Amino acid sequence: MSWFHGVKLCITRGWDVNMIHMKKGSIIKTPLATAVHSAAMVTLLLERGATDVIHLDGIAEFSPALVHAIGTSNPNEEVIQLLLQHGSLVNSPYYTGGTLLLPAYALTSSEKHELLIKLLYDYGGRLDPIFPRPDGLIDTFVGESVEFLASSLESVKQAVAHGAKIKRPVEKDHFVRTLIKWGPVDYGCVWNYSSGNVFCAKTYRSQTGGLVNYDDYISFLKDQGADINALDCIIGYGNSEEILHLEYCTALEYFDFIRSSNVIPDRWPITSEEEIPLFGYPQEAVKKGDRYFGRVPREIEDMASILKKHGAVSFPLR
User: Fold this and answer.
1) What is the mean predicted confidence (pLDDT) over 195-220?
2) Which of 79, 159, 247, 290 falls between 20 and 30 A from 53, CA-CA?
3) Source organism's superkingdom (predicted)?
4) Higher pLDDT, 62 or 270
5) CA dihedral in degrees (189, 190, 195, 196; nearest 10)?
6) Are 31 and 42 within 8 A, CB to CB?
7) What is the C-alpha to C-alpha distance for residues 97 and 57, in angstroms, rounded to an integer?
8) What are the start-end ranges of the H helices in the chain?
9) Could you tell me if 55 and 86 are in contact, meaning their C-beta atoms sit under 8 angstroms apart?
């Protein structure tokens, strides 16, 4: 019996086509998300009532099947169009950058790549989306499109030509920005919190072991009117439960903050000394308590030097 007919038989015997597979409270996959490599299977599931609009926490919703379909190495346009026709969401606050346009822009440039971007725009795709929340706050992704695409200057230029904003909003009390949790500075006590801007984005996007066209990237941003000394990065300190102090700073001050803390973001616990190529360059691990954290890599030093060459400065303590 083929997989297709096996699934069809399971459906006739009462299998839930909207079953959600969870892991530690996070949605991993749905039947539709598992089937995105087959237009026939996606069609079958949709005909039998499958949905790709998943509600989360009563606050927002997203579409895991569309995420998987666009995230494959060779996206199937027929499957993507089927999902969009049945209501899959191109924009959601649960997507990185708030929209699935970004992984589409990041694909290798080709005719298929252009068609996918157009298709997502046709179904409501927006760069730098803003989402109102029930509590009166706003999840804003303004300025994050360019940051997401920073590893490819070609993709950045394409997104900017399509209206992507370079600057994030600053000091909007009702706007919510995501902060990266770093540290700990003092083991088990103080954590760093930070949020970079478009000039810092290359730190997280360099994937080939070095600074790919970072100088050209900075030049392009300046040509577009971006202020290299804008006070729109955020740094601060706090414990694991409560942020104690935050302030705005420049991109250069942001890098100085990282260097002074001398650790990388605590995203993946390390249990033994090893090289950690998170920022492109291998780096030593330093022990804090019974955990290991990576030393600040040379890449950040190099980026700070390039920023200074382009006129970046550190301001006196405010």
Assistant:
1) 71
2) 159
3) Eukaryota
4) 62
5) -120
6) no
7) 19
8) 3-12, 31-34, 39-47, 64-71, 77-85, 101-106, 111-122, 144-148, 153-161, 202-205, 214-223, 251-261, 298-309
9) no
What was the pLDDT predicted at 265? 45
Domains of the chain (ranges plus CATH)? 1-89 (1.25.40.20), 102-177 (no CATH), 179-318 (no CATH)
Place of tokens 């990282």: 258
Residues 6 or more apart whose CB falls under 8 angstroms from that of 142 comprise: 128, 130, 165, 167, 168, 169
Burial of 36 (0-12, 13-18, 19+ CB in 10 A): buried
- H-run or E-run covering 208: none
57: left (phi over 0), alpha (psi -120 to 50) or beta: left
- pLDDT tens figures, 173-207: 555 566 766 655 544 556 677 788 889 886 544 44
pLDDT > 70? residue 172:
no
What are the pLDDT digits (tens) for 77-120? 999 999 999 999 999 998 989 999 999 998 866 677 888 999 99
Quick one: how many helices (H) and strands (E) in the chain?
13, 13
Closest CA to 218 of 209, 229, 210, 207: 229
| pTM of this structure | 0.78
Residues with Cβ within 8 Å of residue 265, at least 6 apart in sequence: 180, 181, 182, 278
Q: Residue 132: is the preceding peptide bond cis (ω within 30°)?
A: no
* E strand or H helix at 1: none
Nearest to 188 by CA among 278, 293, 295: 293
